[in-house]
Sequence to fold (762 residues):
Amino acid sequence: MPVVFFLLLGIVPLLAQPDIPQTYAQLCAGCHGADARGSQQGPGLAGNLRLRRRSTQSLRNVITRGIPAAGMPGFALPEATLDGLVALVVGLNASAAEAKVPGDRAAGNAYFFGKGQCAGCHMVSGRGAAVGPDLSGIARELTVDQLREALVNPSARLAPGYQVVRLERATAPMVRVFARSRSAYEIAIQDLRGGLHSLVLNEGTRVVEETASAMPAAKASTEEMQDLLAYLSSLSGVKPGEGAPAAAGPGAISFARIQNPAPGDWLTYNGNLNGNRYSPLQQINAANVSKLQLVWSYTIPLWAQFLPDTPYFHENMRYFGLETVPLVADGIMYLTGPNQVHAVSAVTGHPIWQYARPRTPGLVSDPSLGTNRGVALLGDNVFFVTDNAHLLALNRVTGRLVWEAVLWDEPQKYGGTIAPLVVKDMVVVGVAGGDWGIRGFISAYKGATGDRVWRQWTVPADGEPGIETWIGGGHKLGGGSTWLTGSYDPAMETIYWATGNPWPNSDDRQRGGDNLYTDSVLALNAADGKLKWHYQFTPHDTHDWDATEPNVLVDTVYRGQPRKLLLHADRNGFFYVFDRTDGKLLLGKSFLHRLTWASGIGADGRPQKLPPSELGCPDHATNWNGTTWSPTTKLYTIIAIEKCTVNLLPGSWKTARPPEDPGRKYLRALNIETGAIAWEVPLTGPVDGKRVAGLLGTAGGLLFYGDPSGYFVAADERNGKTLWRMPLQATIKTSPMTYSVNGRQYVTLAAGANVMTFALSQ
Fold:
C-alpha cells in the first residue's frame, strides 16, 4: 500500500475495521488508484465533490449494486466491511474542518501572515487583503486533499469568481482582471488590487480567458506545508466576537465622504446623515420626467421553503414587499432581502456577490417576515443586521463575513430589521421587538472590529433616571424598540433616534406613568451615547403610536432667524418642530383633518387630552416611511393617513355605533413655520396592512413615491401634481432613492420582491 494512502487514512478518523485498507487494495485500488485519487479506469474517491454530496445510503447502493453502464461491478460484502468502505469514502471527502490534520497551527499562522505572504491577497477574519478569495471558512468548504492541491497546483481548480481574463479593447490598453460574474452582455470584474467594477460588453471588447491561476504555487518546505495545512484546516468561519481590523483597500469609503456625499452618491439609508431624503441631482426634472423608463430590475429570492407557518406571517404575506433602500458607491449597488445582502451593478443590476444565511426559527413580528431596510457602508465593510439581531460586517469586495456581533446580552424577543447608521468610526444600530416584550436599546460598535463602544437603553432599570415614570414592574420588558435609522448632526456631534411604543401596547395595568423613554426622540452624545435631551410625543401610550418616524434635521431661516431644526410628523397625528440644539419645542400642531384624542400641545409640551369618544382619530396618522423637506419650496412633505377606529365605550347596546372608517392616504405638504397644510393629494388604494411607501425629493423639482395601488409616481414638488407614473402592480413598502453613474441619473424603488431602476430614455 503506497505511503500517501496511509497518510490520507491518518488524516481522518475513519477506520473502525482493520481489514478495510486491504479490502480497498483488493477491490478498489485497481480502478480508483492506490492513493484514491483515480486512474484511467475510474474516478478519484478523494476530494470528489459528487461523492461529497451523496448520502451514506447512496454510497452503500453504489458499492453493492455497482454502475454497470460505467463498467463498475457490484460487491456482495459483509455489513461491517460495507460500512467500513462507506466510512472510508466519506472520510476521504470530509471537510478539512472535520479532519485531524497534524502540524503546528501557530507556525502555520505565522507562515500565512509572514514568510508565505498569503495575507497579501487573502483575508482571514478581517486580517489580510481582499484581492483573492476570503479564506475565513475555507476548512468547511474544502477537504485536506483539496487544500493541498490548491497550494501546490493553484490552477487545477479555480475558485468561482476568480478566473483571470484579459479585456482587450482597441481604444484602451489590455487589462488583466478577475471575472467575478459574467453574462453574454456584461461582466463584473475585480482588478488585481481589489477594486470592483462593472462593464457592459460591446463589439469593441474582447474577453480572453486564462487557464492559469493568478496565485503562484506555494514555495514551502515539507514542514512549512504541513503547518500551513494545519492552520488552514482550522479556519471554519468567523465566530461572534472575533475579527481584526484590516488595512483599507482601494476604494475604501471614508466617513468624510459619507458626511459630505458627492451628488451622485447614495451612501446612507436616507442619502445623507440629516435624514432628509432630498437629492441635489436634477438631470431628471419636471420638464423631462415623462421620458423616464425602466432600465433594469433585480429579483430578491425569498426562499419560501424556510418561511414560518404562523397567522402573523400569512396575514402579512398578503401584501409582502421588500423594505430595502439600496446604497450606491462607485457604481456598485448594495441591497438587502430576507437575511441576505446583494452587490450588483448600479448600471445594469448584474449580480456581483450575494451573502445569505437561513431564517432564524422562533422569531416574532417583522423579523419573522424577513423584513430588512438596508445596509451601511464604511471603509471596506458593508454592515447588515440579521433577523435575530446580529450585526455583521461583510467585506465589500468579497461579500464574505469579516466580523459578527450579537446585539443583545439577554435573550428576549429581540429582532433585527434596521439599516445601520455610520457615525465617525462607529456603526450605530437599534433593535425590533417592542410589540412582544423587550427592553429597547441603541448600541454603537467599532466599524473595524465589532467591539461595542456604548449602549443607551430606552427603558430605565431600577434606580436609573426615568424609572419614576414606570409604576409597577412593566419596565423590565417595557418595549421602546429602536428599529428606524437615526439622524446625525456632525457639527453638534449629536445622534437623534426614535423609539417605539411601551409594552404591552394596550394593557397598561403594570405600567402606570409616562413610561419614558418610549414614544420619544432621544438626542445622544455621539462619543458615549449619553442622553442630551429627549421629548416624549405620547406619554403613557395605549394606542401603539410608535414614534419611529423620521427625525429630519434642517438648517434654515425659521420665523425670521437662522435655526437648527428637527422636523417630526408623529403617528399620533401631530407635526413637531424642535430647536435641535436644546430640544425646545417650537411648533406642535395636528396635520390631520380629524383628531379626537387631544385638542393640541400645551405650553408644557404635553398633549392636551380629550375625553374618549366612540370614534378615535387617528388610527395611525403616518408611519416610518421616508419624508422630505425641500429647500426650494420650504415645504415638508409626508404621507398622511386619515383613518379612525371605533371604540367600545360604556353605554346602551341599542345605540348605533359609528360605521367602520375605511380611511384614506394623502400626499401632504406642510408649512414648517405654521404647520398648515399647503397642499394635499388624495391617494387611491388600500390603507390596511403595512403599505407604508415613502418619499424622495430632488433638485429637479420632483417628488417620487409609490402609491397604495402599486403605481410609481413622480410629482411636482410645488403642488403634488402627477407628472409621470408607472404601474408596477406590486406592493410598495419603502422609499425611492436616486444616484448617478457616468453622468446618468437613476431612480430606484423596491416593489414586491423586485428592485426596479429607472432612467431617462437615451
